[in-house]
Amino acid sequence: MSKPTDLVQGTLDLLILKTVALEPMHGWAIAHRIHQMSSEVLQVGQSALYPALHKLEQQGWIEAEWKISETNRRAKYYSLTPAGRKALTAEAANWERLSGAISAIVRTG
Q1: pTM reported for the whole predicted model
Q2: Domain span holding position 57
């Protein structure tokens, strides 16, 4: 099973941006959704997730708001900002280019 340290630098940021673009959610839900959407291949631990969320918030790509979770607890919900939507588009394009290049090398006889 892949761990965040196995991910290409910056990939976790892209996964978080894509996940919160779907709907605002709290940290545990973000990690769970990434795990689900990756067919349970990727597992993002708290030690990687929360520093990444903090960094994305500092960059102005996501914003946080305290709300009550589905388990009736206070949780910080993250959502994409307009700047984050632009960053997601750019990061996704960069990922497609990079992963295509890596795949081309891996497939070579």
Answers
A1: 0.88
A2: 4-107
